Amino acid sequence: MVTTCSQNLAIVVQILDGQYNLKICIFIEKSCHYLIVERLRLRLIVGPQRSGSAFHIDPNATHAWNAPIRGRKRWIFYPPGVPPPGVLPSSNGDDVIMPVSVGEWYLSFWDEHVKNRNNKDKSKRPIECTVEPGSILFVPHGWVSHEMYL
After folding, report:
1. How far apart are CA 23 and CA 114, in angstroms?
2. What is the Cβ-side half-sphere exposure of residue 141, based on CA atoms within 13 angstroms?
3. Bridge partners of residue 53, in order along the sequence
4. How big is the chain by its Cα radius of gyration, in Å?
5. pTM value?
6. Backbone torsion region of residue 40, taken as left when φ is above 0, otherwise alpha when ψ lies between -120 and 50, otherwise beta
7. Contact status, residue 38 vs residue 22, Cβ threshold 8 Å
8. 86 touches 110 (CB < 8 A)
9. Could you tell me where the beta strands, DSSP code E, fall in the chain?
10. Using CA atoms, how far apart are residues 61 and 43, in angstroms rounded to an integer?
């Protein structure tokens, strides 16, 4: 039952369940920012504008593919071993901890991030891009990423 989500998200659930017979898992966070549908390690993630994820490394040595169906998503990537400003790597480097919210990160660390774009060592520069329908983005394991729906 999807009563806490918008009617549009409820319709998405019904269409996917009817056409693909998927196992449906719904994660409700701050007015249902995410709807995640899983089947055989495939995930459909739906979120409203300005939602997204904190900086993270995909778990279990996995890679990720991102192919937007509707809307645009802004990404920030940092290479393996290069944590974003204000983001702390775990002792084994397989994860990161973001001690502030995403909004606080933009307010507190954006200027330092912008400086990192021009790092003399190009291998330590962050990469930014925007993906939209028709694009496919590959994220290799170990890269720290953050994404926001535009």
Report:
1. 41
2. 7
3. none
4. 17
5. 0.70
6. left
7. yes
8. no
9. 23-27, 34-39, 42-46, 64-66, 73-78, 88-89, 96-97, 127-131, 137-139, 144-149
10. 17
Pair of tokens at residue 117: 């774009």
Q: How far is CA 134 from CA 45, 50, 77, 142, in A?
A: 16, 21, 20, 25
Q: Report residue 127 as tokens.
A: 């990469």
Tens-level pLDDT at each residue, the chain (150 residues): 333 344 444 434 434 444 443 333 343 334 444 444 444 456 677 778 888 888 988 877 777 888 888 889 999 999 988 999 999 988 777 788 888 888 899 999 999 999 999 999 999 999 999 988 888 888 888 899 999 988
Site of tokens 């995909």: 58
